[in-house]
Amino acid sequence: MGFIAEFETLLKAISDVLTAGVAIIAFSLFIYAVTFKQHDRVTLTFTLLLLSIVVIFGADAFATVAASSETLRLILKIHWLGLIFLPTAYFHFSDALLSMTGKPSRGRRSLVAVICFLVSVVFSMMLLSNHLVGNVIVNQPPAPYLERTVLIDLFTIFFTSTMVLSWYNYIRAYQRTVTQTSRRRMLYLILSAIGPAFGSFPYLLYGSGFASRATLIFWTLSILSNALVYITLISMTYAVSFFGFPWADRVIKSRLFRWVMRGPVTASLTLGVTTIISRLGRQLEINVSAINVIAMAGVIILFEYSITLFARVWERFMFRGNEREELEKIRALEDRLLTSNDLRQFIDLILATFCDLLQVSGACLLIKNGNNSSNFDIQAGTQKKDYIQQKDSILNQIDEKHLPAADRFLKIDGDVHLLPILYIPEDQPAEFLGAIIVDDLEMERIDDQKMRYINRLAARTALALHDRKIQEALFVSLELLTPQVSIIQDLLATSRINQKGIMSENPVIESTDFDQWVKDALDHLWGGPKLSQSPMLQLKIVEEKAGEARENSVNALREILRTAIQHLKPEGERQFTNEWILYNLLELKYLSGWKVKDIARKLALSEADLYRKQRIAINAVSQEIIDMEKSNLIKT
């Protein structure tokens, strides 16, 4: 008998830990869902559904440590408040999901949704007025619960019928999906939705007699139920994430997995270990405070380390074949890129080594004009002149025809010497990247061994500059590619379930990055890649404008941007009042080319306020262009 009692205590402790774990995972996923970029009906209703689950299981977790019956009654009422709104949240979520598949409500589903909400409000008022539930039962095993009343049966009918209607919507949404991938994800969502629904209902209202006689079975079922809710919540969030984020599948999987493992799973595991230690300590009458602190720190550190240690394993499980190989190449590129700060540190080290080797007080590196890295001209130590200011005249003295043979210092003025930096690829002519300048150099002190060291340093400098030049070309390509990829990701997010999204009239104006594209185009209004490679070149009004004026699309886009700015111009003569501030800011900065400080002074604004007004002005230009595009689509 003693063993059964101890085993029952252990099962209750595990159940309590899992209850708290469900509250933690629900709250963590609620925070995760709030960050969804696309706040449409599906993601918003799912957020409300998670909030109901947070209230239900959070109250259950606090109920296990309630000290008085009054406190327990209040906590159990909070549990019921979440339970009352749970079926309503389920129905709204199912309705939003069905609408997303291209089956909007014709009035009946909207009416049912309103009725469900009103019924939940009525039940919540009954709960607060002490008519829905009775007194708290604390002296009957296996767990405290609120006494059943006649109105509870009405709520059970409401709960069951609303859930049935919700699953009817789920099944219809599943039947409307076409592709194998979308059907699989919808199936994940439907099956996962079972867990929170059936795991939240207070079964003690109808089975308290059985539960008091078979407490071992009750706590075992409670453990299984809580574990089911824990797993299905993650699965539901995973499925809904495809609606909430305009990301590729692999990104959603990876980020959700890291969030769950590093957040709620770590917290739940830590809570479980410390709870079990505390209860064992009370049972054995041992002070375990110090052990609990050590166990808490140890679990967090070891589990976080294991996540990092086994990252390759779970990535291998989640990503297979060519996808994993491509991701490994991208990560390797990130680790091996030579950043601006890396290059600057490397050049500083090279120049310091030059100074030590040649016993001179200073040296500087001049980068050849035309190289995007020209801002890496660096001077180390002290020199007689500022050679960086004389850069163009110094480098122009070099006869590039004879550079391949220039493996030693060239005298340019008195005791000032120049060492060309050449990148020499195989079977190709040498590329002149710049030069290292030193003064007060005594050439007779440089022997063959020192010259070998100097040439080695020069070769490594050339390699770093050449690699950086290639990387800068890569960065430009990525910058130009990002807007195009963003359009594809937005289309992917809106078309995962509703395939009509892929046939959108113009995904450009529906992109969340449209304001940024407008700003980039305005920044390069008079020439530059952000205008010539802008995604806005795909707009119908640009194509039509280019055809009418018989000019290229870049000029057409430039003219449309100017027209959009002119549309913001108030009537009457130009003034410098608040009514004119947006137009004046845009005209001065982008059309007239004024500097920020001059504009701020002219408009009597601080620079911080000017940038805030600029964001508002660019948004206004974006809206003008969107309206122009929509008007064009209506005409055609």
Whole-number total of structural domains = 4
Give the C-alpha Rg. 34 Å
Number of strands: 7
CATH architecture of the largest domain: Up-down Bundle
Model description:
This protein is mostly helical. The protein has 4 domains: 2-246, Rhodopsin 7-helix transmembrane proteins (Rhopdopsin 7-helix transmembrane proteins, Up-down Bundle); 252-336, no CATH class; 340-470, GAF domain (Beta-Lactamase, 2-Layer Sandwich), CATH 3.30.450.40; 514-635, Winged helix-like DNA-binding domain superfamily/Winged helix DNA-binding domain (Arc Repressor Mutant, subunit A, Orthogonal Bundle). The chain has 22 helices and 7 strands. It has helices at residues 2-34, 41-63, 69-100, 108-128, 150-176, 180-200, 204-213, 215-244, 249-284, 289-309, 311-318, 322-336, 340-358, 391-395, 448-495, 514-523, 529-532, 540-549, 553-567, 581-591, 596-603, 607-635, and strands at 136-137, 145-146, 362-367, 378-381, 410-413, 416-423, 431-438. A 5-stranded antiparallel beta sheet has the order 4-3-7-6-5. It has a two-stranded antiparallel ribbon with strand order 1-2. α1 runs antiparallel to α9 (249-284) and α9 packs antiparallel against α10. The model is unreliable at 370-374 and 497-509 (pLDDT under 50).
